[in-house]
Amino acid sequence: MKLIKKGAEADIYQTKWNNSKAILKIRKKKNYRNPSLDLKIRKQRTIKESQIISQVKLFGIPTPLVYFVNLKKALIIMQEIPGKTIHDLPELKIIELSKEIGKLVGMLHKNGVIHGDLTTSNFILFQKTVFVIDFGLSQNTIKPEDYAVDLRLIKEILNSAHAKIMEPAWNNFLIGYRSIVGNANYVKITKLVSDIESRGRYAAVI
């Protein structure tokens, strides 16, 4: 077993499951919380994540298969997707695939799910298919404001991690997104993104 990522909420390991490469995600204990409350929170989040991974598959989102869930240890073992993260691809490829990412996010939102951590490291290209990973912060919601926060996050990521190609990548993302959610929802949600940005600028000035 090999540690591949230490996060604030969970540690991610590369492991094996029935002789196949797999990912083990273990939610960390928080010592500042009451132990029974801490276990309850970690259990709930583990259940929620595994449920949403399975749920979004039903409406066509490529995600890892969930192999095993242990609630007492707050862990999930899932399929390892062996491709490359979008973050690590050449710039022209990122621009091209941004439209597909927009479609995937649109499918999530159209079906009442926010991802909660939309970064280019949470999309993996494998055999011409873009997979979505890490649903640890995902939620079911019908609030347009929640969808706008999702969009605002990926826009920030494009602006910080892929500044040179931010504009064409973001434009392609929006084309893909609008093609799924429809024009009326697109206008409403992108206006909310602008509202969030304007509040941020106002707060910075104050």
* Biggest β-sheet: strands ordered side by side in the sheet: 1-2-3-5-4
Strand content: 15-25%
CATH architecture label name of the largest domain: Orthogonal Bundle
- N-to-C series of helices and strands: EEEHEEEHEEEEHHH
Structural class: alpha+beta
Q: Please state the average pLDDT score.
A: 94
CATH class of the largest domain: Mainly Alpha
Bin the helical content.
Answer: 40-55%
**Count of helical regions:** 5
CATH homologous group name of the largest domain: Transferase(Phosphotransferase) domain 1
Distance between the termini: 49 Å
Radius of gyration: 18 Å
The dominant shape is: globular
Number of domains: 2
Largest sheet: 5 strands, antiparallel
What name is given to the CATH topology of the largest domain? Transferase(Phosphotransferase), domain 1
Low-confidence stretches: 202-206
Number of strands: 10
Fold and architecture overview:
By secondary structure, the chain is of the alpha+beta class. The chain folds into 2 domains: 2-79, 2-Layer Sandwich (Phosphorylase Kinase, domain 1), CATH 3.30.200; 84-205, Transferase(Phosphotransferase), domain 1 (Orthogonal Bundle). It is 49% helix and 22% strand. The protein contains 5 helices and 10 strands; from the N terminus they run βββαβββαββββααα. The protein has a 5-stranded antiparallel beta sheet, with helices on one face. A hairpin with a 4-residue loop joins β4 (66-70) and β5 (75-79). α2 runs parallel beside α4 (166-181), α3 runs antiparallel to α4 and α4 crosses α5. The longest helix is centred in the first third of the chain and has 24 residues, at 35-58. The chain is globular and about 45 Å long. The N and C termini lie far apart (49 Å). Residues 202-206 have low confidence and may be disordered.
